[in-house]
């Protein structure tokens, strides 16, 4: 249960910018991210938020992404 006034972080992955390098997946200590079977327009399997409830908004995924495909709100 979330404390009053505290919002849950939201990780947004731009699937079209993601090249599927998996750096965000590897460096996510909480195993929030995974890889989708869907293919984007560039022919890559982008990362996806697999378990959003585990996210603490630490920012490692955002920092590791070489394509700026991740946003944390």
Description:
It is a single chain. This protein is of the alpha+beta class and 73 residues long. The chain has a single domain, classed as 2-Layer Sandwich (Alpha-Beta Plaits), CATH 3.30.70. It is built from 2 helices and 4 strands; from the N terminus they run βαββαβ. The chain has helices at residues 23-27, 60-64, and strands at 11-13, 33-35, 47-49, 70-72. A two-stranded antiparallel ribbon has the order 1-4. A two-stranded antiparallel ribbon has the order 2-3. The longest helix is centred in the middle third of the chain and has 5 residues, at 23-27. The chain is elongated and about 45 Å long. The model has no long low-confidence stretch (mean pLDDT 93).
Q: End-to-end distance, in Å?
A: 19 Å
Supply the helix-strand structural class: alpha+beta
Strand order of the largest sheet: 1-4
What is the count of helical runs?
Answer: 2
**What is the level 1 CATH name?**
Alpha Beta
Global mean pLDDT: 93
Beta percentage is: 15-25%
SSE pattern: EHEEHE
Total domain modules? 1
- Taking all Cα atoms into account, the compactness measure Rg is 12 Å
In short:
With about 70 residues, the chain is an alpha+beta fold.
Features:
73 residues, 4 strands, elongated, 14% helix, alpha+beta, 2 helices, two-stranded antiparallel sheet, Alpha-Beta Plaits, two-stranded antiparallel ribbon
